[in-house]
Each structure stands twice: as C-alpha cells, then as structure tokens.
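Appendix C: a fully annotated inverse folding record. The material below is reproduced so that readers can follow the format used throughout the book. The structure is listed first as tokens, followed by the designed sequence.
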C-alpha cells in the first residue's frame, strides 16, 4: 500500500477526515463543504500518529536531505514538527500567526540563523494562504525555505496557484482525491458521491454539487 492510501485509510478510520455530502458542513467563510477535516485527531490515535509522523520524516529525508531546521505552523503544525524533529534529530521551532505583544515580540519561536535551510511542517492546506504567510515570515528572517510538508491537501485550484506564485513547494502525505476514492471503496460514502466531491474540490463556490 502506498503512503497516500495508507494515510487516507488512517484519517478516515479515526474520522479526522469525515465526508457528509448530503448534509454539508459550513466553513467560517460561509462555503458549504461535504468534508470536515481535523488532523489534530491524529495526535490522540497513537497508531495513526506513528504512520503520519514516520511518513512526514520519510518525505523530509527523501526530498530535503539538506534540511537544517523544521518549523511548524501555529498551532496545528507545532506538535507534528516537534515529533518529526525528534524522529529526524533536527532542531524545531514554530511560527506564530502574529507577533507576540509581550516579551521579545517574536513571531518565530526557536533559534533560526539567517541562511539556514528550513522545511515547514503543516497539517492541512486548503487555499494556501496561511502557510504562505509562514513562509514569508521565515524568508523575511533570512531562512532558505526548501519546501512544505503537510498531512492533507484539498488540491484546490486557488491553493495550487497561490503556492506556485509564491514559489512554495508542498508535499502532502495524502490528498482529497485519494481520500474520496478510498472513502467510496470502504463504504464511508456511496460511489456516486465521488463525482460530487471532486466538483466541490474544483470550485468550492459552486454549490451545484449539493443538489445532485
């Protein structure tokens, strides 16, 4: 079994990714979504957590052997960056969503020297906005950001375009399309729902998939 399928099965099993095409969830942005994703649940499922962290460590070792520091995104990426840092023996820090208003007012927590090669650890990528902000903060601090590793990506057109425009390479352990296929194969959703899910992925603002 390849990594994408393994992680897809894991996330579905613990309902970290949960499909409900007939009763859509509403995101904070107001978008109706057939999927709910909470990768924090991987932290409370040790077997799944092992699969996730070992897979992240393997991707970093394979794609970014020159990495010198791991930086987690705040807050969801912090725990994953810490565990993967432990597995790989790499230093780890994290990037706040905004600068602190007290103390040294750090946005980047942990030691980071200008010129160091950094890999960003993220849990989930949808539109790409938040992880690009993290990369920008690291670049402003002088880091050489090699890329991003994440657990799950929606593969939305907007997100892919924004990452490409920012010159950010992302590698996800699994993605929306694989999870939709595995969900149908394992009976979490009806096979005919896969097309609806992909329609959502292609254009979240078009809600025509709901009425199918």
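Designed amino acids, in order:
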């Amino acid at each position: 079994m390849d990594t994408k399928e393994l992680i897809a099965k894991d996330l579905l099993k613990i309902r970290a990714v949960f499909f409900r095409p007939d009763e859509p969830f509403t995101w904070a942005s107001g978008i109706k979504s057939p999927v709910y994703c909470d990768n924090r649940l991987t932290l409370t499922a040790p077997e799944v957590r092992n699969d996730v962290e070992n897979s992240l460590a393997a991707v970093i070792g394979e794609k970014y052997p020159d990495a010198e520091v791991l930086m987690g995104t705040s807050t969801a990426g912090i725990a994953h960056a810490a565990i993967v840092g432990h597995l790989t023996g790499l230093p780890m820090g994290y990037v706040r969503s905004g600068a602190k208003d007290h103390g040294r007012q750090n946005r980047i927590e942990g030691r980071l020297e200008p010129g160091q090669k950094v890999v960003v650890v993220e849990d989930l990528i949808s539109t790409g906005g938040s992880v690009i902000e993290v990369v920008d903060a690291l670049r402003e601090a002088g880091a050489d950001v090699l890329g991003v590793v994440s657990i799950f990506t929606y593969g939305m057109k907007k997100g892919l375009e924004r990452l490409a425009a920012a010159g950010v390479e992302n590698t996800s352990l699994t993605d929306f399309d694989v999870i939709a296929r595995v969900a149908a194969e394992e009976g979490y959703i009806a096979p005919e729902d896969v097309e609806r899910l992909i329609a959502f992925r292609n254009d979240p603002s078009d809600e025509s998939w709901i009425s199918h």
